[in-house]
Structure formats: structure tokens, C-alpha cells
TrEMBL record:
This is Aminopeptidase YpdF. Residues 173-373 form the Peptidase M24 domain. It holds the Pfam family Peptidase_M24. Coiled coil: none annotated. Its EC number is 3.4.11.-. It comes from Atribacter laminatus. Keywords: Aminopeptidase, Hydrolase, Protease.
Length: 389
């Protein structure tokens, strides 16, 4: 097992690229927020995932980025693991049931933090990222100390930086998918009539951890029968039955990056209408893999997907387009949709994500790819077929 740790230089380059985007939009200060469940900002810019406490990243248009966290526990952890080396404790980034600290701890608010980040500059425009989840009290403390600044969303700026992956990122992502694929293989190996959904999930988790994953990309699951009709689900104690559809939805997290792989199978011959859905879904995936190339317009991929489903009257059987970006978040912008065109470029990483449901059963086939200069590289093509055990 090879450790594919991303270099400090790669992280520093990300901050510089974000500063370039800030200059284009005359943004003087960019501020992002992370929690344990939504850690993509601190993971991407600092390689740091908070837990118990929260984390923030402040990036001035010029100069050094700063990591904010609670303390003193998270402060000590951040000093060890953060790639951003300037770390400050903000009192509102502490866990919601914080103790009264015994050791002396310098706890600040933005009145003391802002001058350490931007010096004597008076920002005219600040950008907030994680716009829809940025905490109100932290936002209040920020804007009251920058009373004359225009406040805008910083999400698109960061997405423009994240959408093109470095070589180091791509190799880490490839390993996350390799681990994920091995976990799916294990679940298929041990699947049999009478085992529970939760048993299959746990077998997959064991493989992920044994192969070096830090955890999962999201709360993974296995579901079967009518449980498959929901796009999002949880594993239960339900036992797998003969001839029914079973959905595996697995993703391993490695070095902060997400793998993802989804397969459906049955033990014994499935219902003919279910088998037809499997064929249509698999063809949709092959269509997307065939057309996704550098220079292709994202809406053209969507149109091919939509038209394929429309042949069967199934265009309403799906929830969204056939692919989305991925990285430190399992879904990372770049949705291939009807009305949001963008040009597919080399070093973009996508999940081909095909979901169909008819109200009784549902199925998802999902695999990862990276766009290359001449085509695509597939991360996990294992058993992209009708699987009958």
C-alpha cells in the first residue's frame, strides 16, 4: 500500500489560484467555513478536517492564508495536520457544548483576527464560501468588523479553482476509487440470500479501512427490494431475498478525497421490467462515457442522456443529469444539466451518476473518471453489467 500524500506545494498553489480569482472580481478577503459533515473547504485549502469544533479559512487578496478553529484541542490538532501554518482560535468556532478551559488559551474574535490577516487594508468587498451553511453568529461577528464592505458569495470562485485537478490530486483520487472498487468486490463476494443489508455494508467498510481509507465519502449503504426506490437510503436489518434488486452505494475517503461506486445486482433472475431498467441505465452510462471528452459541451451530454430515456418514456424516471464533479466532496459542482453549459476540460474529475426509479424500485450505477488531453481515464469499471449472482 503506497501513501500518496499531497505535497505542501500543491496546497500553497491552491491558495494562489484562489487569490487570482479574487483579483479578477476585486475581492479583498475570502472567508470559508467547515464542519465535520461539510469539511470540503478546510480539506481543500488546508488538508484539515475538523471534528467536535469547527474550522474556517481566511484568504487575503495578497499574503498568507489563515486557518481558524476552536481550541485548545483543535488548535493542537491543527498545528500537527494543517498545511496552512498560521492558525488562530476564534471563540465561535468552538464546539456547541464547550467546557471552561483550564489551560490559558488565546481566544479571539474577528476584531483581533482581521488585522492579522489583511493588515491595515480596509476591505471593500469580501466573499463568503459555504454561502448556504455559513453560521449566522460567525457572519455577524465578521460583518460588524467590516461594516463598509460589500458581501458576496465566494462559492463560484472556489469552484473554478477546484474544478481542475492537479496530478497529485488525480493520483490520490484514483486510489480512493481503487479502494472503493475493492469494497464493492467484497460485498458481491459475500452476498447471499438471508444476509442483511447492514452485513454487506459492514463487509465493504472493513475492506476500505484495511486498504488505508480514512473513512467513507458519505454515509454509505446497501438497500434491497422496495428500499431501493429512494435515491438516498440507509442500510437496515432487512434480509436479502431471492430475485430482488439490491443496491450497493459505496465510497471510500482517502487523503481527504472521495471515491464512489454504485452497482445493483440480484441473487437469481430479477423481474423482467427491472432487468429492462438495468439495461437502459447501463446504456445511459456507456453513452456518457462515450461522449465525455475535452472540448465537449456539458449540455450535449445531458441531451444524449435525456433523449435515450425519452425513447422509453422514462425521462421522468431520473432526478438529474448523468454526471457531476467530485473531489474533496463527493458532489463538487459541475452538474451536467440542461441549462448550465460549460466546456469539459482536461483534469476535470466526474462521477458518471445514473439514477432511475419507477416508484417501486430504483437503481444507481456510478463510476469515476478523469478527463485527459485526448479522452477519459476510467477509475473503476469493474462489472459494469447486469449482475446476477
Amino acid at each position: 500500500m503506497k501513501n500518496r500524500k499531497i505535497s505542501d506545494q500543491d496546497f500553497q498553489h491552491r491558495v494562489k489560484r484562489l487569490q487570482e480569482e479574487m483579483k479578477k472580481e476585486n475581492v479583498d478577503l475570502w472567508v470559508g467555513y467547515s464542519s465535520e459533515s461539510e469539511a470540503s473547504i478546510s480539506l481543500y485549502l488546508a488538508g484539515f478536517q475538523p471534528f467536535f469544533d469547527f474550522a474556517g479559512v481566511m484568504v487575503p487578496r495578497e499574503g498568507e492564508a489563515v486557518l481558524l478553529t476552536g481550541g485548545p484541542e483543535s488548535y493542537e490538532m491543527a498545528k500537527e495536520f494543517s498545511r496552512i501554518k498560521k492558525i488562530l482560535i476564534h471563540g465561535l468556532f468552538v464546539e456547541t457544548s464547550a467546557p471552561e478551559w483550564v489551560p490559558d488559551t488565546e481566544i479571539l474574535d474577528f476584531s483581533a483576527i482581521i488585522p492579522q490577516v489583511i493588515g491595515r487594508i480596509h476591505p471593500k468587498k469580501i466573499a463568503i464560501s459555504q454561502w448556504n451553511t455559513f453560521p449566522y453568529l460567525i457572519f455577524q461577528d465578521l460583518v460588524k468588523n467590516l461594516p463598509n464592505a460589500e458581501v458576496v458569495s465566494g462559492d463560484e470562485m472556489l469552484l473554478r479553482v477546484r474544478q481542475i485537478k492537479s496530478k497529485e490530486e488525480i493520483e490520490v483520487i484514483a486510489e480512493a476509487y481503487r479502494i472503493t472498487e475493492e469494497s464493492v468486490k467484497r460485498a458481491l463476494e459475500v452476498a447471499q440470500i438471508g444476509v442483511s443489508e447492514r452485513f454487506l455494508e459492514n463487509e465493504g467498510r472493513k475492506v476500505m479501512l484495511d486498504l488505508g481509507a480514512e473513512g467513507t465519502s458519505y454515509p454509505i449503504w446497501v438497500c434491497s427490494g422496495k428500499n431501493t426506490s429512494r435515491s438516498l437510503c440507509r442500510s437496515t436489518d432487512k434480509l436479502i431475498q431471492a430475485n430482488e434488486l439490491v443496491q450497493i452505494t459505496f465510497g471510500a475517503r482517502y487523503q481527504g478525497y472521495c471515491g464512489n461506486m454504485c452497482r445493483v445486482f440480484s441473487i437469481g433472475e430479477p423481474d423482467p421490467k427491472v432487468k429492462k431498467m438495468m439495461l437502459v441505465a447501463l446504456q445511459s452510462m456507456e453513452d456518457a462515457l462515450e461522449i465525455m471528452r475535452p472540448g465537449v459541451l456539458s449540455t450535449d451530454v445531458f441531451k444524449k442522456y435525456h433523449n435515450h430515456l425519452a425513447k422509453y418514456g422514462w425521462e421522468k424516471f431520473t432526478l438529474y443529469g448523468p454526471a457531476h464533479g467530485t473531489g474533496v466532496s463527493e458532489v463538487e459542482g459541475l452538474w451536467l444539466s440542461e441549462n448550465s453549459p460549460f466546456v469539459i476540460q482536461p483534469n476535470m474529475v466526474f462521477n458518471i451518476d445514473i439514477w432511475l426509479a419507477d416508484g417501486e424500485v430504483g437503481m444507481r450505477y456510478e463510476d469515476g473518471i478523469v478527463v485527459t488531453e485526448k479522452g477519459i481515464r476510467e477509475f473503476n469499471p469493474y462489472r459494469r453489467e447486469i449482475i446476477i449472482l
